[in-house]
Amino acid sequence: MKNIYEIGIKKQKRPVRIVQFGEGNFLRAFVDYMIDILNEKTGFDGSIAIVKPISFGSLDKFEKQDCLYTVVLRGREKGKTVNRYRVITSVDRAVDGAETWENLAKLARCETVRFIVSNTTEAGIVLDETDKAEGIPNTYPGKLTKFLYERFIFFDSSTDRGVIVLPVELIEDNGKKLLDCVLRLSKVWDLPENFRSWITESCVFCSTLVDRIVTGYPAGESSDICSSLGYNDELLDVGEPFGLWVIESDRDISAELPFDKAGLPVIFTSDQRPYRERKVRILNGAHTSSVLISWLCGLGNVREMMLDDDTGHFVRRVVLDEIAPHVPLDRDSVVSFANDVFERFENPFIDHRLLSISLNSVSKWKARVMPTFRDYYRVNGALPPVITFSFAALLAFYSSSDLREDGLRAARRDGTEYTVRDDRNVLEFFVKKSVLDVDRFVAAAAANTGFWGEDLSLYAGFVPTVAGYLSDIRNDPRNALRKILTSPEK
Description:
This protein folds into 2 domains: 4-271, 3-Layer(aba) Sandwich (Rossmann fold); 276-485, N-(1-d-carboxylethyl)-l-norvaline Dehydrogenase, domain 2 (Orthogonal Bundle), CATH 1.10.1040. It contains 20 helices and 16 strands. It has helices at residues 25-29, 31-41, 60-64, 101-108, 140-154, 174-188, 193-202, 222-229, 273-296, 302-307, 309-323, 331-345, 354-357, 361-380, 385-397, 424-433, 438-446, 449-452, 462-475, 477-485; strands spanning 16-21, 47-52, 69-77, 80-88, 91-96, 115-118, 164-167, 204-205, 207-211, 214-216, 237-239, 244-248, 266-269, 402-404, 407-411, 417-420.
């Protein structure tokens, strides 16, 4: 079978307009994929130079395949199972940015470069004041600062040679934090004051929110996929069809990135917070409120949870009845996003294990579910029944006195053992308190302000309601679930 670079695909030579720090799966199936479509459907006419920012890893496959690779997007979309393939031609080159500074210097001096994209993991945007400007800085903010200074000097501080910086690391306000790192490092390195002015006036640092599950190279299926494609591809990259890129900036940059003309799921805004809240409350909140009871009912992964009559009903009810009304965006967009989430959870190509999602459920419940709990109570003057039930399910899931090195060993009603993984102090609390009678256990858990940031026992009826739910779950999780689902919906 031929390799991808032997099947006659011709890459159109385009000017390098994007420097991308990171060669990983997500960027290739998200940003590079979108730029490929942007080139096809608009006059964007730009290519990407990938920079490998750390010593780990190799670019051999990129060189071997002339930076060509296939993105496979598969899952559920508008009620149908989809399986799409696209050969990505938007990457012009891939260079090492950890061993040879000249590779980065050449890109910094490239007149056509306008955008900087990065995904250096959440740990990548950190300030290290011991990082050095000499040679190759160790951190990503260090490399970016030196890159920008190289550009500033080469183009004689020209205001029209600034760049638009688009970090996609999964931290809140990623652009603002990256800008802060760059400005502070420039002071540590004693760079000129007019360089900092050039950064703030001629460059745009955007904060972004990205959403797409990318599973990467399909090791167990690569032979079958390549057979269906008719060629070998060592850089195959697999993800889900759903995608969302929210770009926040204080200047309108949408004309320079005409994603709307290409029909791509990109939102330009001056405030990304409502979109982040929508994602956290609906997607993450649905997970956190549903996976523990689904596991206790005998299920193993998210898809099974969605397809099960009882747990699938539970997910939809908690999202549509209790979460969605309190997301600060218009109802239609919230419900549309929720329906997309349901389809994503049903993806037949991804086995997202419930126990994997259960990690650190106490802090997740506080961050992802508590805000909706408070809003519902404030608006309705009553407890949200399904979310309150999810709190009882958390207590049931964490109920055990068998603490071991790797976590808290517990067992569900069918005898299947599992390990609860959380911070040690959290597990030690449940070891001591879950053996108490139900009322005292719930009262102690609800009043633990270290877990929830407030005393939940102060909400009228919370402790007795949760105690009743917990007793039912311990007796029979499935029947307890059905009982809450047949209670009147508000």
